[in-house]
Design goal:
The protein is an alpha/beta fold. The protein contains 16 helices and 15 strands. The strands form three sheets. Strands 9-8-10-1-11-14-2-15 form an eight-stranded mixed beta sheet, with helices on both faces. Strands 3, 4, 5, 6 and 7 form a five-stranded antiparallel beta sheet that branches. Bound molecules: zinc ion.
Amino acid sequence: MKYILIIGDGMADDPTEKLGGKTPLEVVSKPNMDRLAAEGELGSVNNCPKELPAGSDTAILSIFGCDPRKCYTGRAPLEAAAQGVSLQPGDVAYRCNMASLEEGDMPFEARRILSHSSGGIDGELSKRLVEDLFADPEFAALAAKARAEVHPTLTYRHIVLQHGGDTTGLTLTPPHDHLTEVCGPHLPRGGSAGPVLRELMEASFRFLSAHPINVRRRAKGLLPANCIWFWAEGTAAALPSFEAAYRKKGAVISAVPLCHGIGALIGLDRITVPGATGEKDTNYLGKGQAAVKALLEDGYDFVGVHVEAPDECSHNGDTEGKLKAIEDIDKFVLGEILCKMTGEDYRILILSDHKTLTDTRGHAHGYVPYILYDSRVKAGSGLAYTEANGLLGPHVEDGVALMGMLFRE
Ligand SMILES: [Zn+2]
C-alpha cells in the first residue's frame, strides 16, 4: 500500500470578479482532480489555526501532523533546516528576501515596495548579490555588530542567523502582503532588534543600488534587487518524528526551503527535482516522475509533493498564471502519478494548504477543500473539486488530523 500527498500551495481562493464571480478551481480544467473528488471523499479542512498567521508555515506544519500551536516558533527556523542550518539556544533566524524598492531621490521610508522577489530574480544572481553585500566592509561591520550571518540560497529567499538575538517587542512584516505600498510603516520596529534590522536594510539599499548586477538589470528593464527585507523571525523548532508517529518511511518533494525544512525536522528524506523553481515555470512532470520513482523504485511508503506556483502567481497578481499552474499540477503531477500507479493500491490526499486570494494577493484563514481517494474504493462524492463542493462534505476542524486520515486502514 502506498500513500501520496499533493499540496497545491495557495490553490484555494474566494470568488472574484476577475473570473466572473467564480474561483480559480471552479473555472480551470482539472479532469484528474475532479475524477478523484467524484470517486473519493471530498471535504473541507482548516489548516491555519485562527490564533496564528495564515500561511504555508502554519498550514504545512498542520498537514504533516505537527500542531503549530505547540511547535510553531516562526517560519525562518523551518527554512533554515532545509539548508542544514540548526539553531542553538539564543539564536534567531530571519527570512531575508531580495526585494525591490522604488528608487530616486527620496527618504528611505518613502520608497514603495515594488516586488518581494525582485521580479523573480535568478538564483545565481541573488546569491552573488547577498554574498557581496555581506562581504562589503561597511556592511560587514554593521552585520558583525548585530552578530548576524547570512546563509544564501539559490533563490530570492535567503536566511540570516543572529546569535544572541532577542525578538521581544519586535514587529516584522511579510513584504508580499504590502506590494505597491510605501515601505515606512512596514519596516522593522520595536524591541532591541527593530532599529538594528532597519539599519541593516537601509545600508543594504545603499550598497545594492550601486552594484553592477543591478546596473545591468536596470539597463534590461528588470527590477533591481536593491534591498534585503527581514521577516518570519523565529527561534529553534522541535518537531515530532514522522516515522515514530505514523510508522511510515517517507520523502518530500518541493522547490521551497519551507517544505524541505519541515521535512528535515520531522525526519522525511528530501528529494530535489532539476528545474523545480517554486515559480509557474517549474518542472511539474519531473515532480510527478520523482514521486512515482520514490514509491515504486526507492521503497518509500509515503511521498509528499508540494507545488508553490499557484501561491506565487497569486502574490504576483498573475491570475492567468494561477489558472495555468493548477491545470499543470492536475495534468503533469497528478496525471503522471495516476498513470504510473495504475494497478497499485494507494491512498492519495490532495489539497491546498491555505487560501491565497486573487483579490488581495494575500493569504487568508478559512476552510480549504481536500480530496481523500483510495484506489480500492470507487464510491465517492460525485462532485467536482471546488471550495463550495468541499463545504458540502466532512469538515475537518484541525488539519493536524489529515495524516491520520490518509494512513487510516
Ligand atoms: Zn502556502
